[in-house]
Every structure is written in C-alpha cells, then in structure tokens.
Amino acid sequence: MEITKKENFEIGIRKKRKRNQDSKNIFSIYKSEKTLKDYMFYLNKFLNFVYEGNGEFHKDEIIQLMGDVEKGDIEDYVYHLIEERELKNTSVNKIISSLKSLYNEMEKHGYENPFKFIPLLKVSRHNFENVLKISFTEIKTILQKHDVFDDKSYRNKVIVYTLFYTGMRSQELLNLKYSDIIKREGEYVIKLEKTKSGREQYKALHPKCVEKIFFYKSYIKKLYALSSSQLEGRHVFPSDFSKDIPLSYSSLYSIIQNMGKLIEKDISPHNIRHAVATELSLQGADIMEIRDFLGHADTKVTEVYINAKNLLEKRAIEKLPSLD
Asked: What are 127-171's pLDDT values in tens digits?
C-alpha cells in the first residue's frame, strides 16, 4: 500500500538500525495467538493513522514502519482517540498498553522505543468527573483572564468562544474554513464536512460567536493585508497564518491546556464540549435538542448530560443551610 507519513512534525536524523528482522521473530514472545492478533489489530490502526493508510500492512514492512514512529505521532494518536473517537480513558489505556508491549519487544532488538515514556491516562472512579471538569462560569473566567497581544493569542481566545458556542469536536474545528461559514435567511450556519458520522452537517451559529469570528477575521485581514476573497478558502484557526497551515491535534490540546492554567485546571477541548452540553441541560434544553446540537447519532450518548444536571442539582441541595 502507498505510505504517506503525517506532516505535523519534523523528522530528525535517526540512528541506523537493522531493517531485515521478521516481525514474527521479534514478537515470538507472545505464546497466545489471540493476544498477538489483538495487539496487531491495535498496531495496524495506529500505523494507518500515522501513515495515513487504509488497510493491512505487509508483515515485512511493519518493523520499519514502527521504527520510524516518533513521540509526536503517538501524542497525536492519543489525542485522536480521546478527542475524535471519544474513547474512555480505560479503552485508550488498553490500546496504549498493547502498543507499549510491542515496542518493548522492539527495544530488546535494538530499536528505539518512542512509547517508553508515554504514560497511561488517569482513570477516574467517578463517571461524571470528566463531564463536569469545567463549568460555564469557569470558561467565562478563562476568557476574562486571557490577554490578547498578537494574532495567535487572539486566535486562541476565539477558539474557546467557538468551541463553547458550537459544541464542535476538535477535528471539526481544525478543519473549519471561512468558506464553511454560510449565511442563510439572515442567520449564519457552519457547514461541517468531516464529521464523526461521515455525513455533511450544518450547525447554527450563535450571534455572539458570529461577532467574535468576524471581528477576528477583520483583524487578520488587516494584519496580513488580505482581502475577503483571499481568506475565503483558508482555515479559520491555522497554526501559520501566512501559509494557512492547519493546527494539529496536539497544538489545539496544548492551547486549551494553557488556557486552563489560568484557572489552575487541566482541561482539554472536549471538556468545553461537555461544559456547553451540561449548561444547555441546566438551562432547560431537552435531550433531543442537546443530541442535535452535539451531533450525536443516539440519545444514549446524550443521557450523560441529563444525569450530570441531576448530579449538579443534588450538589446544590447540599449547600442549603440546616433548619435545626
């Protein structure tokens, strides 16, 4: 199959390694065929992500492809599993552990091990801890504390506004272009082409979000001397404004983590999606409205926000003073 490595990071000079070792010999430690088959399933998914493939890799090329993986590839993949596939930490840890095991065997045969210092994710005993990690009020505080001093700091602030007012997934935000913002019957909508379901979707834009994006757009136009037509096909939130290079998963994650430090919280882009859904529930939106807003295919996924609302209401009861 044709291999094209993702271009979100620079490739440094590597030590020379043996390339002719058979993967079957390297992984002969696994006596259970089922265990090895499961591990290879996770490995194939991982390599397809890194090299933008879509199929099975030949056993003779697996070792070389594994050897060319870098830590940045792994970080992007973990963010992909969490943010885009929305896997639970326990599921992500199962994948990481499987890949760690395979790379540990590689290391014994003289290969570098980029998984060596990749930690497992924390697993919470409370189902709602991640859903309720950040609140509407805390997001407001972040925006108030965040200083805008250049194009990137301005971009980062508008990213938070957009994530909250749209409930977008990370990949949807990273792919967003100005041409995807469409005016229909006096109101603006966003066209989402690369959604989790694979279907093209349209999402209504809150007037406040429209205002923030358009002010930001005017700023970029003036700063880089660009016309509206020149901006039309460009990404709204690029990593490089002059070259229109889109942000990577890891860059977006780092931006939100740094914003979270303003309130001393470790947060991700998906925590903001949780926050807006929970706030909608608190404000009286029903499960179908929240499902449609988030783009869920099934209301079972949306139920967590209704349950989160109930939990918050119980916490409010605990704040009532005693009558005794």
From this structure: 566 777 888 999 999 999 999 999 999 999 999 999 999 998 888
CA distance 81 to 136: 25
With contact defined as beta carbons under 8 Å apart, do 271 and 134 qualify?
Answer: yes
Asked whether residue 197 is assigned to any structural domain, the reply reads yes
Q: How confident is the model at residue 105 (pLDDT cuts 50, 70, 90)?
A: confident
| 62 pLDDT more than 70 | yes
Rounded CA gap, 222 and 219, in Å? 5
For residues 163 and 299, the answer to whether their CB atoms sit within 8 Å is no
Q: Supply the range of the domain harboring residue 111.
A: 1-123
Number of neighbours of residue 228 by Cβ within 10 angstroms:
10
Identify each DSSP E strand in 207-311 by its residue range.
238-240, 245-246
Residue 131 in any domain: the answer is no
**pLDDT value, residue 15:** 38
Q: Are 255 and 234 in contact (CB under 8 A)?
A: no
Q: Domain check: are 91 and 166 in the same one?
A: no
pLDDT at residue 219, as a whole number: 96
Q: In this structure, are residues 178 and 236 in contact, taking their beta carbons and an 8 Å threshold?
A: yes
Residue 93 lies in a domain: yes
* Assigned domain for 71 exists: yes
Separation CA 324–CA 312 (nearest Å): 24
Together in a domain, 5 and 70: yes
